Amino acid sequence: MLTLCALFSTISAFARAEPNALETEFSFDEVQRNGDVVELRGKYEIRNADANEVDLVGLALKFRFPGTVDVRADDGSVTKSKALPSDWRASCFWSYVEGRYNGTNVCPSITFAVTSQELEVRFVNSIKLCPGCVLRGDGSRTSFAVKHVKYLPFARGVAPLELRGIEQFVDGPPTPARPVFRVCFPKDVDFSFRVSSYPSRQDDVASSSQKTAIMPLGTAGYDAFLRVFIDVTNRQAEDYDMSNVVITFPFDWSIVPDEKRGKVQQTPDDFFIRCHGSGSSLCDVTEVERSRDGFAIRFKNGFALCPGCSLRGSGPQRCAFEVYSPFLFPVDIESVRGASAARHSSARHMIDLDDPNVKKHVDQKRRLRDAHVKASSTSTSEACAVRGVAPGNRAVKKFIVLDLGRPIPPEHDPWTSGDAFEIEFEHQGAVVRRSLGELRSANGGKWTEFELRAWNCVTGWSFADGLKFNGVGLDVVLRCAFGENLKFECLFQTGADGYTTSVDARDLDGAFLAVTDESGEMVSREHGGPRLVFPTLFGWKSAKYLKSVTLRAYEGGFWEKLGCHRRGRWALDERWASGTSSRVWTALAWLTNRYQIFGDAIWIWVMVVGGKVLGAIASFTSLFSIGNRNRKLQ
Fold first, then answer.
1. What does the pLDDT look like over 117-157, one tens digit per residue?
2. 595 and 542 belong to one structural domain
């Protein structure tokens, strides 16, 4: 267990926005039905009034949100009632930063959280505002919408939404995985769905008269966009519960501008998905979810189809949804195969901060963060000596070298190759190799100096005597490999010894590639250089003998799969995943630390040898695979 460390530590180099450098404006529109307000559409603008670039990651817009609704009884009387936080749904409208990212939608970097009194719009990934730049909603300036899961109207006479300000937030645990069940429709419920391709731009006029033609997938000239057809009829004598029935469509989000160029990969947010319906119709009781593997249409929780009722789209040829690229480029039809239906459990679209388990987790993180900030702000010499040490860790005077004890292939030899040594990078199927010499050239022809005050090991020790390295910032490395505006969830590292680890894309602040030590010599074989260093994370997140880097959707590495925390931020004491794995690793760490009574030499020997043994066991068995079945706290 004790090999969980891997070297080098951490200085808190958060490149985050200070709230007082941001100017905010807010208003909202009301969506009414039969005179009742059933939806609020928020319009916010965030302007960087500072002279320097700021990053919104880790901040949240906070709103006063009483969450009061009007409940109408059968006799027509109306009662005001407090809705549960879990009863609210929020969705992000296309939002962008003026002057940055070429107008790219930043909604994938935004989530929502709610309590009985507040609503938070959280920025969970990097959104950088240049001086004077503004984040706002597109089109009508709408940024997000909020409504009750059962469309209960907002209470009359109660201010529904009021901006309180912008400040840092504390992560809660992730939403639990939603169980999936097979859908078994009664024989008296007719349920069908299908997807067809439709004309490109030059064929629109010619096909407009073919009102009833439904072309099969792959028909020549009919591939500019997709139409989804849904038809449900309840012939029972009672309501049929459609809650959380989900139709999943595989789609690779690529277009084919012309036959010579072939496929061009896009992202889910580069496409439009339009629902066809009005009033109390299909569009009110369904929502669309996108992922990198396709899209899904979900019937909302609480929706039931009445006896004798039918539900279908009202669009062209009675389609329910249309999927198309902004310029109606042909899509890759072959990727849209194998749609299926299933029933999921109810999903939370906002984090319920009043949930006791969530509240306990958030309060613990907030205490750790406040203690870290307090220690970092003190001016005493004693505090300065230990600043940057993880909570609960003890400082050691000798750096402890840990690894899996695996052999390093002879071809992996940066100590001989020098500037010619290459590292492999992969993103969305594109693979490139960059030499250390190329990375130095991209950095202006020289290495940048990096100074660390401590290296924090997840097993309970910190080397706090200071470390200095020369190298290049991770942002320069990735720009040299792939250019600007990269989209990914995690940075997955692979070492030449087979070790793997993943770093959440939200935790890359201040990261760099350590190439040489203070003397200018290549980081030694003992310390596994060159390697990436992440200032805000525990040491196991830095892979020794770095061979390749992949930018991808999240996948756990060696220790993450065996029970270590997904993110591993030392300031928040994120060591182990929740559940059984947490108890196992905590017990092993406690046993190891008992050996310190025999002196550092014995303690270090137990840690190093024990780590190699456990690493070997974990490599060939599933002894600790229990970590895979536990959701990680984020």
1. 899 999 988 888 888 889 988 767 888 889 887 778 998 88
2. yes
Q: Which helix H or strand E contains 376, and what residues bound it?
A: helix 356-377
Q: Strands 531-533 and 512-517, how do they pair?
A: antiparallel
CATH number of the domain where residue 55 is located: 2.60.40.710
| CATH code for the domain of 474 | 3.90.420
Q: What's the CA dihedral at 556, 561, 563, 569 to 10 degrees?
A: -20
Residues 158 and 224 in one domain: no
Contact 278, 365 (CB under 8 A): no
Beta bridge partner(s), residue 322: 227, 274
Position of tokens 């009742």?
36
Pair 527, 401: CB distance under 8 Å: yes
Residue 298: Cβ within 10 Å count: 20
Q: Name, in order, each residue with C-beta under 8 angstroms of 525's C-beta and a sequence gap of 6 or more.
A: 408, 415
Residue 604 binned pLDDT confidence (cut-offs 50, 70, 90): low
Mind listing the pLDDT tens digit for each residue in 9-31? 322 233 344 567 789 999 999 98
**Is the bond preceding 530 in cis, omega lying within 30 degrees of 0?**
yes
Residues of the domain holding 542: 363-629
Residue type, 321: F
Number of residues assigned to the chain? 634
The confidence band for 377, taking pLDDT boundaries of 50, 70 and 90, is very low
3-class SS of residue 191: strand
Instruction: Kindly state whether residues 167 and 188 are assigned to the same domain.
Output: no
Is residue 278 located within the same domain as residue 371?
Answer: no
